[in-house]
Amino acid sequence: SKCTQFLVAFVKILRSLSTKTIHRPLYTWPTFITCGESSFDDLINRYNPDNQYSQQLAMIEFFDKILSNLGDNPYFGAGFGLVGVGAGLAAGRQALSIGLILFRRHCMMTLEITHRDQSYPWILNWLTYHHKNAQHLSVVTQFHQRDSGQFSSNFNFVPSVGTHFFKFNNKWMKVERDRQQTSVDINMGHPFETIKFTCLGQDKEIFSRMLHYAKDLESAKHDGKLVIYEPRTSDWEPFGEPRRRREFDSVILDKDLAQRILADVTEFLGSRDWYAQRGVPYRRGYLLHGPPGCGKTSYIMALAGKLEYDICQMNLSNSALSDERLSYLLNVAPPKSIVLLEDIDAAFLSREDIDLNRSAYQGLGRVTLSGMLNVLDGVASSEERILFMTTNYPEKLDPALTRPGRVDMKFYIGYASDEQLIRAFERFYPPDTCGIRGKDFANAVESAKRLVRSAKGKKIELSMADIQSYFLLYKDNPEAAVKSVNDLIAMKAASLTAPNGSLSSKGTTR
Q: Does the keyword ATP-binding apply (predicted)?
């Protein structure tokens, strides 16, 4: 072959150069190649380029001589040993790396939780209670309201950014908490964070048990309490600390109005299959309207407590709120929650207001009426939703906003009736302890109203907020509450011309 011919020619040239002497041979056969000139000359002389067998034989003998001489050379042996050791270490390192990869793939499990997932705060809270041995900590300050109304602060320590080890269900786990300082989540406004759990085995049930345990711990923390959510950037987040659920009977509406609303909501919650079988969107909308201070928002808070639901409260006049973000927020509302839109009449700017002063309203009212209508019953509207809207001025609402399908039920919550006055008085002052009936208070209020109406020609109406504020002036003195009714009516009459329309304790005695 040409390769063999070239190699033999090269060897002949080297051999011929070695026979010349200029001070010393230009080239002599290295000891690690030759083992005598005669044997190598015989090899070259026996080479026949026309005989294929001689070509192969010459090549075999040639490399055999080279290898045999290299093996006897101590310098080459030492170098070859070093090369062998290096190659062995490299191969061992590569094999170890491959082995670790295979071990992780088949013998280890990893769970990663990002800060966007709803379980992320559960896990942090769980680590706070069950990871006491961590040496590198971060502090989370929480405020709690006591039954007396005072606030206390708690400092909870959670594992900080880094690697930690702990035991769960008799199995060791590695916890890696990572925070990317160089990048910030635009939607949520804080750095990206992840928590990664790693453990031996292939049973994923341990991660499921861990998440359920963390969820139960969080639920126990909020047990019997109402959580109010508000939108933060793009997601819902708890607003303040969970508060005590308000008793349903503490909000006094006229006649059976409270029970009628409760019955309708309860019937809706139990009709999921009925809606699904008939292809009707599973959502319900309510509009509570009436004068301010009559108990619209208070009733929704009490209703949520009765149903053991939370409240997602949203201000539609927020300049940072857009149609797209509103649609997203309603679709990702936490489960078992009531969406509350207060003062819906003030959510949208009229064309007259915008034309009157464009610079003042620039950048405000980014939620449009058409966007709101699409959110309520459009293609992007959410299901499994209970939505309450409140307004003091229902006449200002666009008829398209309150048509059936968007608002299913409308309820008027007005000023306090005689029946409400009686029930409110007897709730603050139980008849079996004070000996005064609620009807006596209602009659006294009506008499005072008639006096003001005949003297000043003003029709006085009292809201339940007015009644509650008045009772707080006489917490333990029902007799004084009945005798001082004239002061209550006088204050209300004066508040009709006051700037803020609020009651004052001036001129009253307990």
A: yes
